[in-house]
Amino acid sequence: MTRGTRHEYDLQTDVLATIVATTPVTKKHAALLTAFATRTDWRAARYVMTRDIYSDWPARVIDGEGREIAPDYRAWIDAQLAEHGSVSAVVDAHRESGYWLTEIRPLLHYFVHDRGGAQDNFAQFAVWEEQEYVERAVFPSDPRWGLPDVNELRRASGNGTEERIERRTLGEPRYALQEATDMQRFVALAGATWHARRQAEGDRRIVERDLATGQDRVLTVRELWPGYDRQRWPGRRFFDDWTDSSAGHAGERACARWTFNTSDYTEPGGGRHLNFVPQWAHTRKIAALKDTHRLNAYGLYGRLNQFDERIGMPFAWYFYGLHGNLVKSGQMERVLEAAEAGLIVLPECDYAVLRRWQQDPYGF
Q1: Could you tell me which residues come within 8 angstroms of residue 216 by beta carbon, excluding any fewer than 6 positions away?
Q2: Which of UniProt's keywords are assigned here (predicted)?
Q3: ∠277-326-258 over CA atoms, to 5°?
Q4: Tens digits of per-residue pLDDT, 126-135?
Q5: Which of 175, 222, 259, 342 is the most exposed place for a label (fewest CB within 10 A)?
Q6: For residue 284, which of 308, 301, 260 has the smallest C-alpha distance?
Q7: 22 — phi, psi (to 5°)?
Q8: How many CB atoms lie within 10 A of CB 338?
Q9: Helices marked H in 29-130 — which ranges?
Q10: 209 or 149, which is more confident
Q11: Where are the domains of the chain?
C-alpha cells in the first residue's frame, strides 16, 4: 500500500500516526503497546513479528559538525543535479564541502488487534522502527577512482570510494506508522474486486479453429476452462481453509501465526488488484523439508507432523505449503494420495481442505 492513500479498509489517521510517532521505542515495544491500549480503540493490540529484510535508505545531508544541510537527501541531490547539470559538476562543486550522508536502518514490526470470531476479523498495524546513523561521506573522496552514475547518486548507493568513519548512531530510534488495515474489509473488497474482474474475463469470447476441418467456433473463456466459476480469490480461501482445518478447530488464530503483506494496485486502464502475501511469524529456525522423495508416504507424513510440532500447531505444514518455501506442493499432493490410498490417516477436516486445494490449487 502507498503511505498516505486512504482506502475503504484503511484505519490510518493523523491521530494514530502521531501517537505512534511520539511513542518512544522500548524493549518488547512495551510503551507502544501501552499507547495502543490507553490512547486508541485497539486496546487488545499485541506484537506479532518483525521483518528485518529491508535495505537502509538515505536520509539527510549534514556537515562535519553535524549541522543539517538538507533534511531530504534525494530532494537535495535532484536539486544539485538540476543546478549543475552532471554528476561530475556536482562533485566538483562540493569537493571541499565535507558533507556526510545520514542513513536509516529500518525494521518493520507487525501488531494485530484480534476481534475474534471469523479468522479475518482483525486489524493489522505495520510500524517502522527507524534508527538514523552516519558512516560515509556524500561524495567520493578521490574521484580519480571513478564517479557514480546519475542513478547511483540518486539512490546514494555509492561506488565504494567515499570517505568512511566508524558507524555512529544519531539520536534515538523512532517509530513511524506504515499502514493500519482492517483485514476483514480488505479481504471482502479484494474478493469482490477479484470476482468482478474474473466474471468479466470469463465472458470474453475467443475464436477456436479446428485445424483438421478449418471450421471456427466462438467460445467464452468460461466455456474453455472447466470449473472456471468455481474459482475464488486465494486470500479468501486462505482464511476459509484455516477455519475449516484442524488449525481452526483447535482455536488457532491466523493473525497470531501469520502477518499479511497487502498490496492495492490500479492499472493505467483502471483495473484494480488487491492482494496479500502471507508471512509466517515463527521466530525459531525452521528448516525446509528436503529429500523427502526418498521417504515412503508414512515417513513423509511423519516429517510433516514433526514440522507441525516445531511450529506449535496442527496442520501447519499445509499453510506453509501454500507459501511454498519450506513445504512444497508435491509433498502436499503425496500426502493426499497416501490418504486416499489408506496408507495414512488424516483428520477428516484436513482431508477435505487438502482435497479442495488439489482440485483447485492456489498459493502465494
Answers
A1: 207, 208, 209, 210
A2: Plasmid
A3: 40
A4: 999 999 999 9
A5: 342
A6: 308
A7: -100, 5
A8: 18
A9: 30-39, 73-84, 87-93
A10: 149
A11: 14-181, 232-359
